[in-house]
Amino acid sequence: MTHSATQTLVTLVAVFLLTACASGPENNPTARVNIKQIDVQLEKNVPHKKSDALFHFYKTWHKTPYRYGGNSRKGVDCSGFVKIAFSQLFHQSIPRTTHLQSHIGTQIDYEDRQYGDLVFFKTGYNMLHVGFYLEDNSFMHASSSKGVIISRLDSPYWADTFWQIRRVN
């Protein structure tokens, strides 16, 4: 392989890796909303089940910074956050990538969503995002701009990019 072909291949791989789990309009120039339209949830306004293990997991990871490919409290991406939660809370191994996670379990109608279901978004061309549905249209996820947070499904950005809900037993 020539040096030029190698450089092109490396560049294409880098572009793919940087866009594979983007989670907000700051990474998607074609998004139809301004980043200021993405809601910022204050913890006191977020409905939750305090006794639930998923909520306690969120409390531990809240504000962990986003890092593509990350899988620790030093930095985590959306699919890594979901994979770690499944491992620690449910003692279940699931795939590492958002694409593969979007094929596990059973697809659920939006009206039938429940606490703990996986919510998926198409945030751009070949870009997927995943989080855990909580309740009252809220979900927790690793945002590329704010780290691990809780957002609302009915905010303009997330409502516009919503794709599917899956239940993993």
From TrEMBL:
PROSITE patterns: NLPC_P60. The keyword Signal applies. InterPro entries: Murein_DD/LD_carboxypeptidase (IPR052062), NLP_P60_dom (IPR000064), Papain-like_cys_pep_sf (IPR038765). Its main location: membrane. Residues 1-22 form the signal peptide. GO terms for biological process: proteolysis. SUPFAM superfamilies: Cysteine proteinases. Keywords: Hydrolase, Lipoprotein, Membrane, Palmitate, Protease, Signal, Thiol protease. One of its GO terms (molecular function) is cysteine-type peptidase activity. It is a lipid-anchor. Residues 48-169 form the NlpC/P60 domain. PANTHER family: MUREIN DD-ENDOPEPTIDASE MEPS/MUREIN LD-CARBOXYPEPTIDASE, MUREIN DD-ENDOPEPTIDASE MEPS_MUREIN LD-CARBOXYPEPTIDASE. Belongs to the peptidase C40 family. This is Peptidase C40 family protein. It comes from Vibrio halioticoli NBRC 102217.
